[in-house]
């Protein structure tokens, strides 16, 4: 996990978001978006207790909506923060 986090700290354009259910982090998504608006997901993880519940898909959909809206700080609630 440390190598993954370092990638997002050191590389311009790479973003890492935690995914929360209430106050508990249950997943992460790490990605890079190019100048053409293409999204490349590099990491996607969901806590085993929360798998098969749609959280992986939810993370992807929230990032797509977040980036489409152009607001990097709009994630909240059952989503990225």
From TrEMBL:
<keyword id="KW-0012">Acyltransferase</keyword>
<dbReference type="Pfam" id="PF00583">
    <property type="entry name" value="Acetyltransf_1"/>
</dbReference>
<keyword id="KW-0808">Transferase</keyword>
<dbReference type="InterPro" id="IPR016181">
    <property type="entry name" value="Acyl_CoA_acyltransferase"/>
</dbReference>
<dbReference type="GO" id="GO:0016747">
    <property type="term" value="F:acyltransferase activity, transferring groups other than amino-acyl groups"/>
</dbReference>
<dbReference type="InterPro" id="IPR000182">
    <property type="entry name" value="GNAT_dom"/>
</dbReference>
<feature type="domain" description="N-acetyltransferase">
    <location>
        <begin position="11"/>
        <end position="57"/>
    </location>
</feature>
<protein>
    <submittedName>
        <fullName>Acetyltransferase, GNAT family</fullName>
        <ecNumber>2.3.1.-</ecNumber>
    </submittedName>
</protein>
